[in-house]
Amino acid sequence: MYSLIALLAGAAAKLYDDLEDNHFLQKFHNNTLMEFLKGIHYITFTAASIEEPLFFLFSYLLNILHSFGNKEAYSKPYEQSLLYSFLLLFVIIDYKKITSFCLSDKLISIFYVFTSALEPLIGPAVKDEYSFAKMIARLMNMIIYIILYYFIRSNSLKYITVYFIGYLFISVLVQLYSLTMEKLKEEKEEEKEEVKEEKEEVKEEKEEVKEEKEEKEEVKEKEEVKEKEEVK
User: Fold this and answer.
1) pLDDT confidence band for 111 (50 / 70 / 90)
2) What is the tally of structural domains in the chain?
3) How does pLDDT run across 13-29, given as a tens digit for each residue?
4) The domain containing residue 33 runs over which residues?
């Protein structure tokens, strides 16, 4: 049950982020939907955090690390508020529920910390709002997290992993949609250019025909004038 809650939390967080930033999704953007996604994220994230305090502690740590590498990640008021509003959970969670990780879970945790700190430092292609490189990177990460899920023993780490899977799943879908829309946009622009070129060619042909006609008329007039002179 809580795995599904964590999955929904990750999906809601990413969908909100993309609706806010991706211009191809602006036609789906409306205030009611955005507030709904914020509410879903607050509720699901808080529920999973209370059930497994390490889910909250570890998630908060990863987000802090990510914010150091990517200054734009929390540049908007709502995003900034998350770094402070969730501090309240530090006095709500039950620390007695915290259990230690086994060795494999500790290694996976180190991997998560490393990737969270590393991703913002990767090249411009992955930093772009959408790109083929970013889609492939997110898809590979999602596959890795799905595989790791089956080796994890700690519930808190499982919830974190599922949260990432939900987040990355939405990200991959949005990347694919954005790239498809970008391609369609380029094709339409190319068609417009072709139509424009065809119109210019037709215009040039008409001008050439007009010039030829004018030249013929001039020649005809000269011949008529010459004939008249000869008759005289």
Assistant:
1) confident
2) 1
3) 999 988 988 888 888 88
4) 2-186
Tell me how far CA of residue 20 lies from CA of 38, 106, 129, 148, in angstroms: 12, 35, 11, 30
Q: How confident is the model at residue 199 (pLDDT cuts 50, 70, 90)?
A: confident
Does residue 222 lie in a domain region? no
- Average confidence (pLDDT) over 208-216: 70
* Runs of H (alpha helix) within the chain: 2-21, 31-51, 53-69, 77-85, 103-118, 124-127, 132-149, 155-231
Let me know if residue 229 belongs to a domain. no
Hey, what amino acid is at 151? F
Closest CA to 36 of 63, 13, 59: 13
- What DSSP letter does each residue of 15-52 carry, written as one string? HHHHHHH-GGGGGG--HHHHHHHHHHHHHHHHHHHHH-
Q: Does 174 fall in a domain? A: yes
